[in-house]
């Protein structure tokens, strides 16, 4: 067994939540293991991997224990949700950096080495997000600007997709390809891949656990920005993300939870605008429901209808 004193200090803690995605989590961890070995070989520094096992019933625990015994496995015994689960792991983590990684996100062999090298050489970057793609290579929007009443309505009505307009507003959810082609300072990045310095967590306290899932990274990034930290997006680093696989493939859940998350965000930070935001969401989802029905997307139409008439 090789002894290396530099391994006494953990450079980065990789944090992954697992919940009933056995095969997907296995694929994620196998790639994490490859990238971890590559990083430790090239840098001489160590990484730790922490998995929060949120009460899966599909054999995930047995698989992780058998195939990845080197992983620090935390089992709270219940589904803690994204915010609380990640907070539990960050509280236990030893790294100088934390990387929050979804169990349905698949990284490259070079990911740990290249992203940590970037953070080391760019001290003005405190939180880093990467380019996310779908399995077929198409772009998956993964960053944006903090919610305001204006960009909520332009997002809900798809006004921020229009040429000229999209370049003049700070969109909550930018989705035009040109936005994602260059390194830029942003106001939030997705929790599917979120690399941050330890001191960011220590000075801000992590996620607000009142958010169970969706929009919690946006709210945390607001507090991160308020403390003077910088958030960046860098498309030079890339990962595949099976969008919403970790939430069970049901499109109703993300639509409902994101709307509830946006409302909670405004209730917490801009309480005077809560009713206006609720109205904007109703208008926006009604328009989206009609459009989904027009193009024959019955699943989305049903999800928007559920929010409007029984799910909100």
Task: Report on the architecture of this protein.
Pfam families: Glycos_transf_2. There is one protein chain. The chain is of the alpha/beta class and 312 residues long. The chain folds into two domains: 5-246, Spore Coat Polysaccharide Biosynthesis Protein SpsA, Chain A (Alpha-Beta Complex), CATH 3.90.550.10; 250-312. The protein has helices at 22-43, 60-67, 82-92, 111-121, 149-156, 198-204, 216-226, 252-269, 274-294, 298-311; strands at residues 10-18, 46-53, 72-74, 97-101, 105-106, 127-133, 139-140, 143-144, 184-186, 188-189, 193-197, 231-241. The strands form two sheets. Strands 1, 2, 3, 4, 5, 6, 7, 9, 11 and 12 form a ten-stranded mixed beta sheet that branches. It has a two-stranded antiparallel ribbon with strand order 8-10. Helix 8 (252-269) packs antiparallel against helix 9 (274-294). The radius of gyration is 20 Å and the shape is globular.
């Amino acid at each position: 067994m090789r002894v290396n004193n530099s391994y006494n200090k953990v450079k980065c803690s990789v944090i992954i939540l697992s919940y009933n995605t056995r095969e997907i989590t296995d694929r994620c961890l196998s790639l994490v293991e490859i990238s971890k070995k590559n990083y430790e070989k090239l840098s001489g520094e160590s990484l730790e991997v922490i998995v929060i096992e949120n009460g899966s019933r599909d054999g995930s625990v047995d698989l992780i224990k058998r195939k990845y015994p080197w992983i620090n496995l935390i089992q709270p015994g219940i589904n803690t949700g994204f915010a609380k689960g990640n907070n539990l792991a960050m509280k236990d983590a030893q790294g100088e950096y934390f990387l929050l990684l979804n169990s349905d996100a698949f990284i490259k062999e070079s990911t740990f080495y290249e992203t940590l090298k970037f953070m080391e050489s760019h001290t003005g970057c405190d939180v880093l997000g990467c380019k996310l793609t779908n399995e077929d290579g198409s772009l998956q929007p993964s960053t944006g600007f903090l919610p305001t009443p204006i960009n909520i309505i332009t997002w809900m009505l798809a006004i921020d997709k229009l040429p000229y307009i999209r370049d003049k507003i700070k969109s909550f959810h930018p989705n035009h390809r040109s936005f994602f082609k260059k390194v830029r300072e942003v106001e939030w990045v997705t929790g599917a891949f979120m690399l941050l310095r330890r001191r960011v967590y220590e000075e801000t306290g992590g996620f607000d656990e009142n958010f169970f899932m969706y929009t919690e990274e946006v709210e945390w990034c607001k507090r991160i920005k308020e403390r003077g930290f910088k958030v960046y997006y860098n498309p030079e680093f890339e990962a595949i993300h099976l969008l919403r696989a970790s939430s069970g493939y049901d499109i109703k859940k993300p639509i409902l939870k994101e709307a509830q998350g946006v409302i909670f965000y405004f209730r917490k930070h801009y309480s005077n605008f809560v009713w206006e935001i609720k109205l904007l969401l109703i208008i926006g989802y009604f328009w989206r429901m009609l459009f989904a029905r027009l193009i024959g997307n019955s699943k989305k139409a049903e999800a928007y209808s559920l929010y409007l008439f029984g799910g909100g």
